Amino acid sequence: MGCNASSGPPAGETKADLQPQTSMQRQESPPPPPKPAEKLDAQQIKALKQKQRKLLEESGFPRGVVVETRHPYEARRFSWKQSVPMEGTTGLGVYFCNQCCTYDEGAMLRIYAGGLQRSASGPGARVEVAVTSGGSVYGTVLERDKSCWLVQLDQQRSVGPNAQAFDEENGPKEGDRVEARQSSGIWYPATVTDVILEADWYAATRTPSFYVVDWDDGAQEEQEMKPYELRRPTINGTNKSNGYTFDALPRSVPRYSANPNDGQECYALCVEEPKSIWVEYADMIGEEISSFCLDTYFVLTPIKIEAFQGPGPAQRAGVQQGWFLDLAGMEKEMSQHCQGVMDSLDGIGGIRATWPSAPCQVSKLLDACFNNLPDLLRNLNEQLLCKSGVKLLFSNSSSEKPVKLLPEAAAFY
Question: What is the pTM of this model?
Answer without folding.
Answer: 0.68
